[in-house]
Design a protein that fits this description.
Elements (H helix, E strand, L loop, with lengths): L8 H13 L6 H14 L3 H12 L5 H22 L1 H14 L2 H4 L13 H19 L3 H11 L1 H15 L7 H14 L4 H12 L4 H18 L8
Helix pairs in contact: 1-3, 2-3, 2-4, 2-5, 2-10, 2-12, 3-5, 4-5, 4-10, 7-9, 8-9, 10-11, 10-12
InterPro entries: AhpD-like (IPR029032), PTS1_Protein (IPR052999)
Length: 233
């Protein structure tokens, strides 16, 4: 730890206990991942490491711990498109520095988001386009036009992000991905994009209960860590 977590360690333990009890529809693996993503978006990398190790301590084997860390690293990689590369990097680095050699020695070393050649790059582009349409449904055409009108360069970035990163489901499902977007955007006051992705959870096969549980995690964090009260609309 770098000693820069926002609050005492017992605070994160309390958050971890609450997400276990107050997030129906989510597995503990999902809830812990979502809390870590929200902490990363809130720029609390040491908080991410603390919660990571609280969750690892609930697991019976190194094999399961390694699998969950890969899941979390994938989530934090996807998060970089929303909360920024520095925050995702800082969070992932804090996690890696907190792990035991037994876990670190079994983690993947090669990237999963580099296509093997032009044919795979084309397939990934199509995969990203399909996932974008799955998430936004009828609003997809309007959103695409709005982004292109704002900046064609931004749209090129969206196409790359969806094709190479967001639509890759090596460790995360489509539902996991949209739930992580919810906590990311809520933590960062994502505005209209947040509303679109609440619907996106349902559009990719998730439930209203899962979406509300993810939202509850982000609210818990903002209210307790950042002292921002929730005012129901």
């Amino acid at each position: 730890m770098t000693g820069t977590s926002r609050l005492p360690e017992h605070h994160y333990n309390n958050l971890f206990q609450r997400i276990q009890a107050e997030t129906p529809g989510l597995t503990l693996e999902q809830a812990a991942m979502l809390l870590c993503v929200a902490l990363a978006a809130g720029n609390d990398p040491d908080g991410v490491a603390i919660v990571t190790n609280l969750h690892l301590n609930t697991m019976a084997s190194v094999t399961k711990q390694v699998a969950w860390i890969e899941y979390l690293r994938h989530a934090l990689c996807k998060a970089c498109l929303l909360c920024s590369f520095p925050r995702s990097w800082n969070a992932t680095n804090a996690v890696m520095n907190s792990l035991s050699p037994d876990i670190k020695g079994q983690l993947r070393l090669d990237p999963i988001n580099t296509p093997s050649g032009p044919e795979e790059a084309h397939q990934w582009h199509r995969r990203g386009s399909d996932f974008f349409k799955d998430v936004y449904r009828s609003r997809g055409v309007t959103i695409e036009a709005n982004i292109k009108n704002a900046s064609p360069d931004l749209w090129a970035f969206v196409e790359y992000g969806y094709g190479n990163i967001v639509s890759d489901m090596t460790y995360m499902t489509a539902v996991d991905t949209e739930l992580s977007v919810i906590v990311n955007l809520y933590t960062m006051d994502g505005g209209p994009q947040f509303v679109d992705h609440l619907k996106g959870v349902l559009n990719v096969g998730g439930s209203e209960q899962q979406a509300q549980s993810a939202l509850h995690i982000a609210r818990l964090l903002k209210e307790s860590s950042f002292h921002i009260p929730h005012h129901p609309s």
